[in-house]
Amino acid sequence: MRSTGSWYDVRDADGHMWQCRLKGKFKIKGLKVTNPIAVGDKVQFDIEDAVENTGIILDIDPRENYLIRQSVHKTAHAHMLAANIDQAILVATLYFPRTSLGFIDRFLVTAESFRIPVILIFNKQDLLNADMLEFEAELRELYESLGYTCLATEALSGKGIEEVRALLRGKVSVLSGHSGVGKSSLINAIAPDLALRTKEVSSFANKGVHTTTFAEMFELEPDTYLVDSPGIKELGLADIAPAEISHYFPEMRELLNQCRYHDCLHINEPGCAVKEGINEGCIAISRYESYLSMVGGQDNRR
């Protein structure tokens, strides 16, 4: 239910909470990660002290899926955001702070690689002027045409909150995004009893301040769980080879078997159906630019 790095809050089948440690060092075969256990994992544990409610985790059950990104601090390692989830929710803002389209697309590719459905929430509607609202509407139309559910919300006024609550019901969802986009405020609007801590966005840097330090899963109602994850500054792709990236762009995936070469990277190869799709307006320029930055391994935090 919660990971603080060295201790893990584990809920048993009866709903009782235990504070658990790992038995020795866990190494997951074929996966270099900074955190061997993620919120949402199902584990086997032994009780260490029934009075103190402590235990020792012995094993991790096989995962249905997980969200992962490159570790910012540890080269060649990845960091798991959550495991065994039904859907991922990315909270984005076009202003204060601004979420780049590259960051949105990287999140979508990461989720697509594990076939995890994504909901895009564009928060802080109240901060947008007429031109920005029009641009946001165009973005929602673009991503909806690709099969992603999009919502516009104002956490403080309550706009769109009922729609979000309905999409969460009966599922395990992970909430992600940059610091300062209003994740904690959204959760507070959905479930006021949680009373999560929030902070103002720094006007000096136009960046959010971390209020969520560790990933934590909340039970909003029976069979409805929400994982609140720490704000992400950058989202490096993990375990995805450059040649595979286009497979996780739905609009490119439809054209892959039409390229002249089966190993086409869609950059400057002749007979590329993806490049033709761009020229014909079937693929948005912003999406193709995101693709190129991913293939090139560029940072896309903003």
From TrEMBL:
Zn(2+) binds at C259, C264, H266, C272. Monomer. Associates with 30S ribosomal subunit, binds 16S rRNA. Residues 83-233 form the EngC GTPase domain. One of several proteins that assist in the late maturation steps of the functional core of the 30S ribosomal subunit. Helps release RbfA from mature subunits. May play a role in the assembly of ribosomal proteins into the subunit. Circularly permuted GTPase that catalyzes slow GTP hydrolysis, GTPase activity is stimulated by the 30S ribosomal subunit. This is Small ribosomal subunit biogenesis GTPase RsgA. It is found in: Cytoplasm. Its EC number is 3.6.1.-. It comes from the Bacteria. Keywords: Cytoplasm, GTP-binding, Hydrolase, Metal-binding, Nucleotide-binding, Ribosome biogenesis, RNA-binding, rRNA-binding, Zinc. Binds 1 zinc ion per subunit. The keyword Transmembrane helix does not apply. HAMAP family: GTPase_RsgA. Its cofactor is Zn(2+). Residues 73-235 form the CP-type G domain. GO terms for biological process: ribosomal small subunit biogenesis. GO terms for molecular function: GTP binding; GTPase activity; metal ion binding; rRNA binding. PROSITE patterns: ENGC_GTPASE, G_CP. GTP binds at N123, K124, Q125, D126, G177, H178, S179, G180, V181, G182, K183, S184, S185.
